[in-house]
Amino acid sequence: MKSLGIAFIIIACLLAGCSQATDVPTQDSAIQVPDSDDSGIEEQQPEAYSLHFKEVELEEPLKSISTTDLTNVINKQKIDEYTIYFYEEKGLDEENVRAAIQIDTKLLEIGQVGYAALDPEQYTVSQVQALDQTYIKVSGACGANCPISYYIHPDISSPISLRIEAHTVEADIDQNGINYIVASVGTAADTSIYKLRDGHIVAANLNETLAAQAVIYDKESNMFGDGTRNWRVKEEELVLFKE
């Protein structure tokens, strides 16, 4: 009996020890991984853009016409020794208005500058400096939202004109002493600049350069605005203006 009692005591102790072992909590070991910083760095916008000039074909020879073609002259302007006529086009129900220039003894057709409904006072003539040349500038409109400018180089041997369908101004935008032609058209102004390079006329579109919907030129400040920032032309770059 004594042996049996000792055996029961040993079994009870063993069972108690197992129970205590199962009650000991286990400690999990984990590596703490820091959260990634996805705030990023704000991309800096460029402060200068290269201007990509492309050669353009603007020059057109002026064709001789007869004085009999000057039917119904509605306006006539004289500048220096040149006379510019604005007349309604013959045989087209008097819808289109064309212009011609008298150079010495030659009468030369410039082209369409308007339509009959346009106020004749909107046809303008001036002498301007642009692209290192002196031009006679004739402006009008080829439609309701279609301004047009002709730059006529009155060389007596072979007069030519440059035809640009836009509002145009002449300005020394890069301060090198020679006027560019700045041309803008549309409600959201689409603006291009024209200059002379190696004897050829080249142009760059500033909306494409800035990826902007509208680019407006302010002649007083000599700057281009894209709605948020202002730019100036320096050599063949658009450079951000900083006050």
Question: Can you walk me through this structure?
Answer:
- This protein is 11% helix and 47% strand.
- The chain is mainly beta and 243 residues long.
- Strand 18 and strand 19 form a beta hairpin.
- Mean pLDDT is 83; it is low at 1-42.
| Order of H and E elements | HEEEEEEEEEEEEEEEEHEEEE
The overall pLDDT average reads: 83
Query: Mind describing the biggest β-sheet?
Result: 5 strands, antiparallel
User: In percent terms, what proportion of residues is strand?
Assistant: over 45%
Instruction: Count the beta strands.
Output: 20
User: What is the overall number of helices?
Assistant: 2
How far is the first residue's CA from the last residue's CA? 109 Å
Number of domains: 1
Please tell me how large the radius of gyration is: 40 Å
Q: Stretches where pLDDT falls below 50 for ≥5 residues?
A: 1-42
Helix content: 10-25%
Strand order of the largest sheet: 1-20-19-18-17
Shape: elongated
Which structural class do you get from the secondary structure elements? mainly beta
Q: What's the multimeric state? A: single chain
Protein name: Lipoprotein
Keywords: Signal
